[in-house]
Design goal:
mainly alpha; two-stranded antiparallel ribbon; 15 helices
């Protein structure tokens, strides 16, 4: 790769691996990732590597049509649609152009991403004792904003390294570091994601399939017994849905309960198409007033996570209705891995990211989101191109040279 390509490759992977840099200009927050996108898109333009595949254009049109429908119904606003569409379109377009710029070297990008996640978490774990004892006894969050982000960042590399260790006894040190990050983060999202990872990983052991429920039960029971944060959230959530009251419950339970309530009200009115792209915040303000939220009423936490629903599953259902849920699940199923190659293992690892996002991550664009989505969708195409070029090279008895356009 020339210098520009190397810069784009390394700078992108370093940023999305959890090495977040945020600059504050007055009270305005500017994330380094978005500055990087602007710089790298300019470089890609000079290199003539900008790329918007047909399916991406269809996706953009779907978002715009959904937003227009919400505006017509007065359940959405032009400003909401425009603001969110800008973020989604730029990030998705950048991810597609990134993979084209690096000649669709999917495996290389994932390996380097996993290695960078390991190094970032190692640095975070070294710093953590000093922060805990000298600054504040908070849960571990690495170089990220919240402990739950550890799950989004670390789950796919952890699964990939676990697969490598099971097959070749490699990357044991990386597995230990990432598991320590999960342990000190003490995040319910991380533990639930780990449970799903165990379920997926254990499928390869046919004789142990019957033991999977037992293993999951032991894991979740042990987590419940030893993690005060997980226990509090599990108990409060069960009580809230049993009594239809969030008074006195923790913030995570409050956020989940209120956003689920808003989603149900939206689906009663518009079950097929929802209220429109990025309308959930508007729907929240419309419906939460009819819900008894106890001591949270009138506080700064009343509308906490009202914009992103703190769950991609809830937000998609609210914004796009049952059609959105069907399309989201259909996408995951359509491009699902069907083999056991390294690329298939990497895509299976991305399932863990999708799972945690669906249950506890509602943002439509974040640093690594479209890296995972584009990687997942491009992998089958890349494999077909490789086999096609391999067949042609074999017939012509020429050395194989793979290039993508």
């Amino acid at each position: 790769m020339n210098r520009a390509r190397k810069w784009i490759f390394y700078s992108t992977i370093v940023i999305i691996s959890g090495a977040y840099l945020t600059v504050y200009i007055g009270k305005q927050r500017l994330e380094a990732y978005y500055v990087l996108i602007a710089i790298n898109l300019w470089l890609m333009l000079l290199m003539k590597k900008l790329w918007a595949p047909k399916n991406l254009i269809i996706f953009f049109l779907f978002l715009l049509c959904s937003g227009a429908l919400g505006i017509v119904r007065h359940t959405d606003t032009l400003l909401r649609v425009a603001k969110e569409f800008l973020g989604v379109s730029v990030c998705a377009f950048y991810a597609c152009s990134f993979f084209r710029t690096i000649d669709f070297r999917l495996e290389d990008s994932f390996r380097f991403y996993a290695k960078m996640v390991y190094w970032v978490q190692l640095v975070g774990l070294i710093i953590y004792p000093f922060h805990y004892f000298l600054v504040s006894p908070d849960r571990y969050r690495g170089l990220m904003a919240e402990p739950s982000w550890v799950a989004y960042i670390c789950l796919p590399p952890l699964y990939y390294y676990a697969d490598c260790w099971q097959k070749e006894r490699k990357y044991g040190r990386e597995i230990i570091v990432l598991l320590l990050a999960f342990l000190f983060a003490d995040s319910s999202t991380a533990f639930i994601g780990l449970s799903f990872g165990i379920l997926i990983f254990m499928r390869r052991y046919r004789k142990a399939v019957a033991l999977i429920p037992v293993i999951l039960y032991i894991f979740l029971f042990t987590t419940y017994a030893t993690s005060s944060y997980f226990k509090e959230r599990a108990t409060d959530t069960y009580d809230a849905f049993s009594t239809d009251s969030v008074d006195g419950k923790n913030l995570s339970t409050y956020v989940l309960f209120t956003n689920l309530y808003v989603m149900k009200q939206v689906l009663k009115e518009h079950p097929i198409m929802g209220d429109g792209f990025n309308s959930h915040g508007e729907s929240f303000m419309r419906y939460v007033g009819s819900l008894d939220i106890g001591g949270f009423a009138g506080t700064q936490f009343e509308d906490l996570n009202s914009e992103d629903a703190c769950s991609l599953g809830i937000r998609v259902a609210s914004d796009f209705g049952l059609l959105g849920i069907f399309l989201m699940i259909g996408f995951i199923w359509r491009f699902r891995p069907k083999g056991n190659s390294e690329l298939d293992v990497m895509r299976t690892a991305i399932w863990l990211y999708f799972f945690t996002k669906i249950i506890r991550g509602g943002t439509y664009f974040e640093t690594q989101q479209y890296f995972y989505i584009c990687f997942y969708a491009l992998a089958p195409v890349v494999v077909r191109v490789r086999y096609s070029q391999l067949a042609r090279a074999s017939q012509q008895k020429q050395p194989l040279t793979i290039a993508y356009t």
